Amino acid sequence: MYGGGNVFEPMKVKELADEDPILLKEFQDRIDRGEKIEPTDWMPELYRKQLIRMIEQHAHSEIIGALPEGTWITRAPGFKRKMALMAKVQDEVGHAQLLYSAAETLGKPREAMIDDLINGRSKYSNIFNYPAFTWADSCFISWLVDAGAIVNQLANAKGSYGPYVRALDRICKEESFHLKYGHDCVASLAAGTPSQRKWMQEAIDRWWAPMMMFFGPSDKISVHSEILIKWKVKMASNDAMRQQFLDMYVPKIWELGFTIPDPLLRKNEEEDKWEITEPDWDEFKRVINGDGPCNKERLAVRRIAEERGKWVREAINRKSEKYMVPLA
Amino acid sequence: MESLDPRVNRMNLPSSFDEAMHKEEMDQLATYEVFLVPKEGKPLESVGPVHASEIEMAFVFGKEAYSRRFTCVAMAVCPTSSIFPSPVSEAGQSAYELLTDQAETEGDEQQYEVFHMNKRGKFHKHVGSLMAKGPLDALHQGKEAFPEETPQNVWVIPTSDFHFNSEEDSDLWATLPEKKYRDAIFYKAGDKIQKYKDSVNS
Fold first, then answer.
1. How would DSSP label each residue in chain B?
2. Residue ranges making up the domain that contains A246
3. A126-168 tens-digit pLDDT
């Protein structure tokens, strides 16, 4: 699960003008022909750095995203829901493993990524810094947060980097179960008792604002973002993804008789565009920089898992077996 | 630290940490490549890497990571260090055309498994086995053995470096049909949506 809104901030790298023009042209031509880049190919430093950051944030989001949902495994209503939610959480953690491996092929060791996560230097999807108060919150995440992530991941699956594309191919297939499971959970509450409907409505009211922020602020048109689009690193604008999500899911939420807590929400049929209340981007920035309701807890859980798992890693590690960067 | 999550409360998290924790360098396990046969009659194909302390653990992790959700009839793992890759070619060009180093001429022959990535961005698929004196010899022989193919990347791997599941273990994958709750088609939200609509209309 991953939003991808906060990824494309500027970074310090070698200027494009300093890259070898011949290699750069070959690289661009290959992407223009629709071919994928493989790890042994030459690539500009900006491409490598942006991809590392993006894939790493995606991996962290899978790990951290498993926490608010994992909360509800033991309290999910009934055996089947417990089994299904456990399988979903296992999928998310598995996705993180695939993604960390894909990022490793670009030269950043997995330890460095985990180190950056637990020390707050690396970001993950902002939405997971909000708490899941009730079972209905977990249903919202399973259905709609995953739906948002799928919009993002299907776009990224058409990107230019081979190992990321291969990982996303598998991830997208697995996500289809999450979406159906989540929709089923929400529909069950919708068709349930007045209290169940009330819980679901309250969850929608709590999560709608973070959901709109999930895709990130409108992209600034800059040379930087243009080049990332040209290199097929960034596959769709944040606004385009938000619009696609609204198009697909607002009617489905309304179909279940729930309301959406945005008085300005309407489809402008003439422009074929959804109008929404501008999300509170100050809150977004505040939360992403560490000051959200759950940031501290999420990172503390990860850190403690690392600390308390150390003896296991030491016990099973055989020094004769050597780590090496995955090939593909 | 107080949490809404009873499991987190049982962890007794401190409200703050005195100092930063840093991962040690190379605090991770060795790298293995996982291959599986998705259906009877299909070739073995690469699915991705796992990190594990040794090859049998890599097999277990590989099974969990790559075969828990979709059909699978056989699996194999090998250390990533056993894979000898060719260069990656451009579209329309065979990776075999890019071999420059001479094949080994000395040494004992052993069996290699040959995998082709037919297109950039795709997975490597098994095309056959051959006897060779070394990995470069195996690549050169692959060029002779598969003249019709134009792979964009070739892997040759000594057969003896693989860990395969044995024939009698193939019921490992028979549990998949029992876990229908992991399939998208298990969920029929339509019935519930209809139930809701009926309740509104009645």
1. ---S-HHHHHTT--SS-SS---PPTT-S-EEEEEEEE-STTSPPEEEEEEEESSHHHHHHHHHHHHSSSS--SEEEEEEGGG-EEPPPPPTTS-GGGG--SPPP-SS--EEEEEEEE-STTS--EEEEEEEESSHHHHHHHHHHH-TT---SEEEEEEGGG-EE--GGGGGGGGGGGG-GGGSGGG--HHHHHHHHHHHHH-
2. 32-305
3. 999 999 999 999 999 999 999 999 999 999 999 999 999 999 9
Chain B CA closest to residue A132: B4
Select the residue from B181, B185, B200 to test the A interface by mutation, using most A Cβ atoms within 10 A: B181
Chain A contact set for B28 (CB, 8 A):
109-111, 313, 323
Has the ipTM of the complex gone over 0.90?
yes
- Structural domains in chain B, sorted by start: 25-187 (3.10.20.520)
For chain A, how many structural domains are there in total? 1
Residue A186 lies in a domain: yes
CA of A225, closest CA in chain B: separation in Å?
24
